[in-house]
Amino acid sequence: MKMAIDDVVKMNEAYRLIVGALPLTEGSEKILTGPEDLRFTLSNVDDIYLTIMKAQRGIKKEKDNGIRYLHKGFGSVHEAYVSGNFDQFKEAVFYLMKLVEFSVYDSCFITE
User: 76 Cβ partners below 8 Å, 6+ apart?
Assistant: First the structure.
């Protein structure tokens, strides 16, 4: 997936506004933290959105008071953990994806 610089800026702004309070981690390394620390880059945005898309498809496990998502990609299994309410997170991600117009992913969303 090719990303334009403007798309990255839009995602940063959308994240700050919508999901800034929901930290997303991969393994022990945080890839999305709070709004002040968030930095999407052209190199890591594919991993982030692959994780989110797999989560939208329902590959999830409950973990404490949050949700852990697992997906396989690039020859290894990645783990992402999102704290907070899953429905709120899903709604926020849907809005975020629409904002940056990733039409290629439109069919990936589940509509419970």
Answer: none
Pick 38 or 89 by higher pLDDT. Answer: 89
User: What's the 3-state SS for the chain?
Assistant: CCCCHHHHHHHHHHHHHHCCCCCEEECCEEEECCCCCCCCCCCCHHHHHHHHHHHHCCCEEEECCEEEEEEEECCEEEEEEEECCHHHHHHHHHHHHHHCCCHHHHHHCCCC
* Cα gap 15→52, rounded to integer Å: 13
Instruction: Provide CB contacts within 8 A for 93, sequence distance 6+.
Output: 19, 52, 56
Instruction: Please write the tens of the pLDDT for every residue from 71-92.
Output: 333 333 333 444 444 555 555 5
Q: What is the pTM of this model?
A: 0.26
Domains of the chain, residue spans? 5-101
